[in-house]
Design a protein that fits this description.
The protein is built from 3 helices and 2 strands. Helix 1 packs antiparallel against helix 2. The model has no long low-confidence stretch (mean pLDDT 84).
């Protein structure tokens, strides 16, 4: 049997929306863990990143379901950036807890923690 995923019309829109939801389920666990870890130290920035993540996922869903491939890119970019910032918060927290008081980057930049 030959199985083809419908990409046009209402059925195609439903299939794309379902795929976008599946992407959300696949990518949300690291974000939830980062929110739990970073939220205790960086409460307001974590809340902001969480709101931006949610907005990006909504944009991804609407763009992908209504227009199709490519229209989800702005939402994906916003989601990826907010995820990266949350993970960066976790790295800073881990570095501080491991006893690093500053980070030197190639002797040019020095970040105080």
């Amino acid at each position: 049997p030959h199985v083809v995923l419908e990409t046009e019309g209402p059925v195609g829109s439903y299939n794309r929306a379902n795929r976008s939801l599946t992407h959300f389920i696949e990518n949300s666990l690291p974000v939830v863990i980062a929110i739990l870890l970073a939220g205790r130290v960086f409460a307001k920035p974590t809340f902001f990143c969480s709101a931006v993540f949610a907005m990006g996922r909504i944009m991804h869903q609407i763009g992908y379901a209504s227009i199709g491939y490519g229209a989800h890119a702005p939402g994906f970019l916003i989601t990826a950036l907010s995820t990266a910032v949350l993970e960066g918060f976790c790295i800073l927290i881990a570095a501080k807890n491991l006893g690093y008081s500053s980070l030197n980057v190639e002797g040019v930049y020095k970040f105080e923690l």
